[in-house]
Fold these 2 entries.
Entry 1:
Amino acid sequence: MDVAIVGAGIGGLAFARALELRSIRCTVYEQRNRYARSGLGLLLLPNGLAALDALGLGDEVRALSNPLDLAVIRTSAGVPLGQYRLQGHRGIARMDLMGPLQTAVPETVVRFEAPFEGLLGEAPLRARVGGVEVQPDLLVAADGSRSSVRSVVAPEWRLEPCPVSELVSVCVAPDLAALYDRTFLKSMATGERLAVGLVPGAFGKIVWFVQFDAREVGQVPTGSSAKREFVRQLVGHWADPIPELVERTDFTHTHLWVTPSPARPPAMVHGRVVLIGDAAHPFPTLTSQGANAALEDAVALARHLSEGPSIDEALAAFEAERRPRLEEIRVGGQALLDSFLSADSSSLLPLVDV
Ligand SMILES: Cc1cc2nc3c(=O)[nH]c(=O)nc-3n(C[C@H](O)[C@H](O)[C@H](O)COP(=O)(O)OP(=O)(O)OC[C@H]3O[C@@H](n4cnc5c(N)ncnc54)[C@H](O)[C@@H]3O)c2cc1C
């Protein structure tokens, strides 16, 4: 079997690794160049870690991330609203997750600067990527929430814009990281659609993010000093350590994450084209499930393909297994979004119990 994977993000690389472990041949086509870096940090949840364990990368990723065993929820003034024990959660810089995935896949398998350009035929499957025609047995689209492959195989499906956006930053602050250590701290302004999350990562890094209703706060400016001023106006007066984070963060590398609404996703399987990760099911930021569910998809699809009995039966079994689980996350994401938009602090925990 010969598999073409579009996108060398978290889902695409994880799937390539899973195929490598089963000696299934694949090529990954990625539009960016080899050195491009994007994204800042995320919460790894137990389901994502279990998938990394299945890929033989769990221990390496644990060594590059920070365990979190307590979630503290409070108001913007620092008044505690509750605390919850966490199990199997970790904070990680996105590049510290991408690193092990990238090195786990042989260099020759990934073609950079090779964007997906279109499908040329369905039986047999033919596609154009990076200026060349390929004829794989299967094409797996792991090209993110704005998937070009999805726009070809499910042209009627539209990404619903979500009012909630997230500005993600990383502050290298070993003193603060040591102070908050294993605590995921989330603050929300009472009666407002505005929250700040703080995730201590490894190596003295603090991943932190501001979640807001973009209809209320307007456009995030470009330029690091304008961004700092934007964040300062929003949350610079909140309880410690938020003012310090605002002043110490290098806003040059801040990432604005504009997430979609949890609309009912399209089918994952379209003949011999399969959508995985954000291409298949873009989740809103509040779930923290984007990377974790993409890892699960990758492991499940490789398992079904290696178990057969045929590619088409494997694809049907994959979709049947994943659909109910992804629907649970989507419905949970919708509830979190509704609660955030009604300024209710129960939206503050990530979606872990699905
Ligand atoms: C820039 C960025 C920053 C993010 N930052 C955070 C964050 O800080 N915290 C967090 O929790 N989540 C973040 N996310 C979301 C999270 O990383 C995703 O939910 C998760 O990675 C899903 O994995 P995926 O493989 O489906 O998509 P992605 O990891 O987004 O990977 C998609 C890949 O496909 C490539 N691609 C796109 N179009 C084409 C094409 N036409 N041809 C070839 N390749 C293509 C992209 O360049 C990318 O490498 C970020 C996503 C992105 C894209």
Entry 2:
Amino acid sequence: MKKADVVIIGGSAAGPVAGISCRRRYPEKGVVLIRKEEQVLVPCGIPYIFGTVGTPEKNLIPDALLDKNGIELVKGEAVDIDREKKSVSLAGGDAVSYEKLILATGSLPVVLPIPGLDKENAFTVEKDVAYLRHVLDVINGARDIVVIGGGFIGVEFADECKKNRNCNVTIVEILPHCLQLALDEEFCAEAENVLTERGIKLLVNKRVEAVLGDNKVSGVRLSGGEELKADVVIVGVGATPNTELAKKAGFQIGPTRAIQVDRYMQTITDADVFACGDCAEKFSFFSGRVSRLMLASIACTEARIAGVNLFNKRYATPGAIGVFSTVIGERAFGCAGLTEVMAKREGFDVVIGESTAADRHPGSIPGAAATKVKLVFSRDDGLLLGGGVSGGTGVGELVNVISACIQSHMTAYDIVLFQMGTQPCLTASPIAYQLVNAAELAVKAMR
Ligand SMILES: Cc1cc2nc3c(=O)[nH]c(=O)nc-3n(C[C@H](O)[C@H](O)[C@H](O)COP(=O)(O)OP(=O)(O)OC[C@H]3O[C@@H](n4cnc5c(N)ncnc54)[C@H](O)[C@@H]3O)c2cc1C
């Protein structure tokens, strides 16, 4: 039997980061990472295989990352964990023993109970190179593509499928708006306008009731009976924790069906086993209640915590804030923490501060984009609860700044004094800096 100080199961976002963090903290420890894929995809890059990037092979996490950090890669499926003997068995009969184990087995696509989804050319979003190569081949020959789900994954898929292809793309979303689970309504409406301008058809408040066709997809039937022609159906509705292996080994599973862990990412079942990423239970930064957020960014933070805590507890998670961003054509949208709707639902009395300005100064600088920042504060103490942004590509980092402010428990009064750096070709003007102006307007509204 192979022996290792640390064994990690999972090779996507969380697994390698946990390994790297462990090796940085404990360079004397030997780390073995077990993953079942031959090649591992950048999970968030999957929609871009169908347009911008072009092939699954251009969307891979390089194995050199493991090599460079002294992590031994074992390709194979872990099929059993013997917690008494502290060993992991692989399909094919090999086994690896461990002193500490990290479970980073991730998630699997949600399979909706829609009749006909088993037909040829109906796809979920599998993180698998060969599967996605086949999906790409089918999409390249498609005329009518229906995407079920208008969340980030569905919207990114739809936009990429439409890019440089002469085909019809329709998103069917059950809620009144696309992106509604992550953004406030005004941002959703703006995103929907951009999608429509780019030739994507949106059907909201509609449910796909059946996928039609003999063996192959030929269409979908919607709630209300309307039928749409389709030669490809893509289900982009989210993921569920992959915990079969953990369940089999007797690990406690939480209310979101993920592995139960404490703030140190240590499983509550076994002190020598940690879990991180999509397979691990999360709690909200704001309420402390369980959270269904599943993001690569959260997975990597948890992995850093798990990797470092293996032999000496150092880090504890403050809970998941949830930071999303996406881009449709030239227009980006993002949110950190609670939207206005979520904050009200959580029971906060909120004050909103909003500011729109160009992200360059003067606004005549080529490439400048009007950027809107909406900040959500608690009225009582001015605490920042969340922020939504729409604008140019700077949105990705702007929501990260908002997340840093939330994590640091900053109030509107702190953000008014935020010390930013500005430069005409790179940022908004210091006079019109949206984050600060939005906070100042919220302070005014609080008085
Ligand atoms: C299309 C799409 C777009 C996304 N975009 C974003 C984005 O823009 N930003 C963002 O933050 N998040 C995004 N996400 C979410 C993000 O991809 C996940 O949160 C992230 O992949 C979680 O990482 P993970 O390592 O926990 O799990 P996974 O990525 O699911 O990886 C799990 C790993 O474990 C391996 N494994 C599982 N079981 C076994 C076993 N028994 N033996 C061996 N190996 C095993 C798998 O093969 C895989 O390598 C997106 C997801 C999708 C599907």
